Amino acid sequence: MDGFGLNLRWVTEPPIILHTGVQFALRAKKMLEDLAGWDEVQIPEEDGYRPDKLDFITNIDSRDWKIVKRTHQERWNLRIKATVDLVEDMCNVGEGDNDHLYIEYRVSGGPVGLMVMSNANTLGHCSISLLVTHPGSDNAGGVLIEFAVKQAVDWGFNGKITLYPNDDECMRAYEALGFDYQGSMFLDPSKSGKWTKVGKTWKLTSQLGKLYRA
User: Fold this and answer.
1) Domain 10-37+93-213, CATH class in plain words
2) Between helices 21-34 and 72-90, what is the axis angle to 10°?
């Protein structure tokens, strides 16, 4: 398990790094190494969670609903597997291209968040094609979305971005960041009460004045 989180310094802006496709793939491989052992973490059944609680998931192929009983441990194991699968995809981005940005959120030398976004100028907003955060990170997803909003402002889209969630849990996480579901997850920070205009860009209201680990 990676040791990031110790001996940290604090900064007023998150340490975001832009990469070429090749560099990004190398950082994805670093995250893959850091994920080793996280599938062995034991999650207790507590905090009011009942092992017989029903979770609803969609069977995409048949369009039917399937009811599954999942424990905390099972949900954790699924999250780790989904994270590993996505990072493995990021290891294969190749040389990249000029239509995409390859972005790393780095803490104490390790990648805690990775994102690929594009300037989908024909749609009137930017799109995020890949986004993954380390399971041991704190608000890495929010940090990356804030950067994506800033980039969408710089590109002339007033912070508008869209993405496709991997599952219902991801959808709920994006909803907490102000996204609405419109076939995909769509964010217009100017119409969300969760965002505040700061200078030319928008920032999550809940994170205003926060310091970031570096």
Assistant:
1) alpha beta
2) 150
